[in-house]
Design a protein that fits this description.
mainly alpha, Hypothetical Protein Ta1238, Chain: A, 183 residues, 4 strands
Length: 183
C-alpha cells in the first residue's frame, strides 16, 4: 500500500534507492521537471488522439511516437535516479529521422515564430519549453551525476521534435506562422 506523509521532513526517496534526498536538491528538482515534461506529453498525446489530421507523422502514428518519447523520459529519469536504465543511440536516431521527415513536409523556417495557431501546435510549443528547461536541469545534474551522452542528446532532440510537431500541426490545418513584430 502507498503511504503518504513520509516526506513531511522535506526529504524523499528515489524509486528503487534507499537513500533519502532533499526535496530541494538539484536531482530531485530535475526528476520533478522530467515528470512534468512526461505528464505534459501525456496531455499532448490525448489531444493528438482526437485529431485525425495528425494520425500519421513520418509514417508513424503520432500517439505511438509520443508514447515512445514518454518512455524515453522515463529512461532519463531512471538513469538520473541511479537505475540501470538508459536511452539508446537508436532512440535518438529514430527521433532524428522523424524530425527530418517533418521538415520535408513543412516550409523552411524564416524567422522566430509566435507560438499559437491551432491548439495542438500551442501545446507542442509549450511542451517544447518544458523540455528545454528540463534539458538545462539535466545538464546541470550531469555536473554531479554521471549521465550518458545519449540522454542529453535525447532531451535536445525531443525539444526539436516538439518544435517540428508544433509547426507541422499549424501547417496541416492551414494556420499561418506569425512572425514577431517586436513592438
Amino acid at each position: 500500500m502507498f503511504q503518504t506523509g513520509k516526506g513531511d521532513d522535506g526529504k524523499t526517496r528515489v524509486f528503487g534507492c534507499e537513500q533519502r534526498l532533499s526535496k530541494g536538491s538539484l536531482v530531485t528538482e530535475t526528476l520533478g521537471s522530467l515528470d512534468e515534461a512526461n505528464s505534459f506529453l501525456g496531455w499532448c498525446k490525448t489531444k493528438a488522439a482526437k485529431e485525425k489530421k495528425f494520425d500519421k507523422i513520418a509514417d508513424q502514428n503520432l500517439v505511438d511516437l509520443l508514447a515512445k518519447a514518454q518512455n524515453g523520459l522515463f529512461s532519463v529519469q531512471a538513469e538520473l535516479a541511479g537505475a540501470d536504465k538508459r536511452v539508446s543511440a537508436e532512440q535518438v536516431a529514430k527521433m532524428e529521422e522523424v524530425i527530418a521527415a517533418v521538415e520535408k513536409e513543412i516550409p523552411p523556417i524564416e524567422s522566430f515564430i509566435v507560438p499559437g495557431g491551432c491548439e495542438l501546435s500551442a501545446m507542442f510549443d509549450f511542451g517544447r519549453t518544458i523540455v528545454r528547461r528540463t534539458e538545462r536541469m539535466v545538464v546541470r545534474a550531469k555536473e554531479r551525476i554521471p549521465i550518458q551522452p545519449e540522454s542529453l542528446a535525447f532531451m535536445n532532440r525531443l525539444s526539436s521534435l516538439l518544435y517540428a510537431l508544433a509547426r507541422l500541426s499549424n501547417h496541416r490545418v492551414g494556420a499561418g506562422e506569425e512572425k514577431p513584430n517586436y513592438e
